[in-house]
Amino acid sequence: MGDRMTAAARNWLDQRWTVNLSTLFTELPLVERPAAAAEAGFDAAEIWWTLDGPTPPQAELDALRNAFIDSGVQLTGLNFDAGNMAAGSKGLLSRPDDSQQFRDNIAVAVGLADSLGCKALNALYGNRVEGLDLAVQDELALENLALAAQAVNAIGATLLVEALNAPEAPQYALLSSKDAVGVVDRVNAATGLGNTAFLCDLYHLARNGEDLPQVVAQYADRIGHVQIADAPARNQPGTGVLDFADLFSRLDVAGYEGYIGLEYKPAAGVATTDTFGWLPVELRSSKRG
């Protein structure tokens, strides 16, 4: 971690890591990425929904499932279909014209997760629809999140809700930890299941200018997953300004025992394998010890 990394701070590296295969190893086809993660020393991974629409052909689902099984990599997190993210979509569930696409995806995504023992599914809320009453959008979102929470509960999993950052996603509906946790609380109140949690993405929150130690302290009981990238460039730890040693220490004190998702992106022209120098290979497996 460069000059900011000291021997005393190295204990922050002793985490349960899960590598995001939608931001890393993207130089390879999706079905080849689990094996590449395994070769790099990881045994846990998470992915966005980048398959062929909300209900892809069974052969495509089977190929992805087999890629995880054959590699020995555990799928720890899966996004529901969020639309064409390359074109700017940030979710479907709050948007009347896109709502059915999200609903069509629920059973498919939950089925894939269940077949691989994945216990966390993330639902991106969606960009605001200009000219449409916000209350209408939020009511629809609550209905769809409740449906997702019920489906996820049937396989003993957690539904995640996250905030994005305003510089990159200014039209997204949830642009603060307070926004996201408010939705989490409303979904849990509506369903009575208590299986909806906050995806605490430290990169997005940092880009929004939030006080990260305060976020961890205030919302510790709602955090269901943590993702990281250094800020401001979204590259690997040590390339930006975030003090991960301090943040992980605070998460430890708060009782967080889940995975840390590596959702960073390599800088232009840098291979994924060249971004792991900050993390010794013997510490990449979640099953060590």
Name of the CATH class: Alpha Beta
CATH-assigned fold name? TIM Barrel
Total separate domains? 1
Radius of gyration: 18 Å
How much helical structure, as a percent, in the residues? 25-40%
The total strand number stands at 8
CATH architecture: Alpha-Beta Barrel
CATH H-level homologous superfamily name: Divalent-metal-dependent TIM barrel enzymes
Across the major sheet, the strand order is: 1-2-3-4-5-6-7-8
Protein structure class: alpha/beta
Described by strand count, sense and barrel closure, the largest sheet is: 8 strands, parallel, barrel
Polypeptide structure, described:
The chain has eight helices and eight strands; from the N terminus they run βαβαβαβαβαβααβαβ. With 289 residues, the protein is α/β, with parallel strands linked by helices. It has an eight-stranded parallel barrel, surrounded by four helices. β7 (223-228), α8 and β8 (260-262) form a beta-alpha-beta unit. α3 runs parallel beside α4 and α7 runs parallel beside α8 (244-254). Residues 1-10 have low confidence and may be disordered.
